[in-house]
Amino acid sequence: MIEDNVFSEVESLEKLYLASNSLTELPHLHHNENLTTLCTYGNQIKALPNDAFTNNTKLIELKMKKNLLTEIPRSAFAADVSNF
Predict the structure, then answer these.
(1) In degrees rounded to 5, what are phi and psi of residue 15?
(2) pTM of the prediction?
(3) What's the CA gap between 67 and 59, in Å, rounded?
(4) For the segment 32-74, what is each residue's pLDDT rounded down to a tens digit?
(5) How many whole angstroms separate alpha carbon 8 and alpha carbon 58?
(6) What is residue 84's predicted lDDT score, i.e. its pLDDT?
(7) DSSP result, 35-81
(8) Would residue 65 be called left, alpha or beta, if left means φ above 0 and alpha means ψ between -120 and 50 degrees?
(9) Which of 5, 33, 70, 77 could form a disulfide with 81 if both were Cys (CB 3.0 to 4.6 A apart)?
């Protein structure tokens, strides 16, 4: 488990690789507006919060294979997301 706001002070964070860490949920990434790449494959994430990536408007690469997700809510992304 990763503490909720562990990355909140790292505003310049662009790439985050959390693959194969037995995570059951994503850490809060609302303060990481410069995040372009997030890799969380090989974990045990079952669901995403409705607003998971709404502040991550620069996110262009999201790798979440081999998790337990059955659905990704459209509201998890900013309104202007066109291609995921």
Answers:
(1) -130, 135
(2) 0.88
(3) 19
(4) 999 999 999 999 999 999 999 999 999 999 999 999 999 888 8
(5) 16
(6) 55
(7) --EEE-TTS------TTTBTT-TT--EEE--SS--S---GGGB-TT-
(8) beta
(9) 77
